[in-house]
Amino acid sequence: MDPVAELERRGGVARVETLRAAGISSHTLRRARELGVVTSIRRGWVALPDADPVIAGAATRGVVISCVSAAERLGLWVPTASPLHVAARPNAARVRVPSQVVIHWSRPVVPRDPDSTVDGLVNVLALVAYCQPRETALVIWESALNRKLTDKRLLSGFDLPPAARALLESARPFSDSGLETIFVTRLRWLGLAMLPQAWLLGHRVDLLIGERLVIQIDGATHVGAQRTSDIEHDAQLMLRGYHVLRFGYEQIMARWPEVQAIIMEAVAQGKHLP
Length: 274
What we know:
Blueprint lengths: L2 H7 L3 E3 H6 L4 H10 L3 E4 L2 E3 L5 H9 L2 E2 L1 H7 L11 E4 L13 E4 L15 H11 L2 H13 L5 H5 L5 H9 L7 H10 L6 E7 L2 E7 L3 E6 L5 H16 L3 E6 H6 L1 H13 L6
Parallel strand pairs: 5-6, 9-10
Antiparallel strand pairs: 1-3, 2-3, 4-5, 7-8, 8-9
Helix pairs in contact: 5-6, 6-7, 7-10
């Protein structure tokens, strides 16, 4: 069996024991090292020379990529940039990592496979709940639910730490992007009914406040034909008595007080009422 092909299948990094269990002989692996097509990165671990340096680095140091860093790799919506987060066993020996790397010394909710270099989703969500501000953590949790990577019933069966259990109670699967989660979270103090992804006139809108105030959030895809369709839908909504407010990413993330002021004025004018 070709060790290079097996390593490629496993993401470029693997334990020697795992490769041998897959049918690669010690002689074949030693020959691959001599030829330079496989390199030893830690006792019992090997990698391809062009393996992902972050993955290889984690394996070298005996940690797994976790928390927000793993959430990004899983395709979840992470609002802000963050240094690399890794997780180590609570009883692990001293781990040497660059100063900017965040290490979580914690017992995982779900036991980690000894071959894993990226933490599993449940462990990731548990660490996010503990590590990140509540708004950021809720965005990531709702992203996982919305993408159907997990569900609340499954998560409720785990022995989650208190912070994660609290997020499980609050998280909903309906927000189609993290910006929608942020909107609802930041406006909850208004005490108004808010329905993400409401269905109006044959199309979904990002958020319906009360019965008539529609919030639309423009992302990178709101260009060309999509933009034209959205404008047409806005017009049809307004002709039928709805009030539509549109905001972009930069406004929400960098100029929130301005956005909130506009919504407060709209509510004060009764734009959300039938």
